[in-house]
Amino acid sequence: xxxxxxxxxxxxxxxxxxxxxxxxxxxxxxxxxxxxxxxxxxxxxxxxxxxxxxxxxxxxxxxxxxxxxxxxxxxxxxxxxxxxxxxxxxxxxxxxxxxxxxxxxxxxxxxxxxxxxxxxxxxxxxx
Length: 127
Hints:
By secondary structure, the chain is an alpha+beta fold. The protein is built from three helices and five strands. The chain has one domain.
């Protein structure tokens, strides 16, 4: 079983390093409010420039991946489960802030990982 887990972890780590096109609809920073039992997702708008990089729509500056820039989120979504959060974002918001299917799939995976961390009382780190 340990070998299987190691193999699956290695596969996920490899896949995390692939190129992904950025969603012009924006990006999300996902975190837990453990005491409240909530999965939270801050939505930020962006523009994708000619090089495929996300830029701040207000300043035109490239948004770094390390998160060391201070920006104000457009909306904060909160849910008790991955499903509840997905329903709020994908079904109740019109227009939906996600414009790419691969981004939707990524968010579903991350919300589920966050839910598992919430249930287990472990740290959640967004991929």
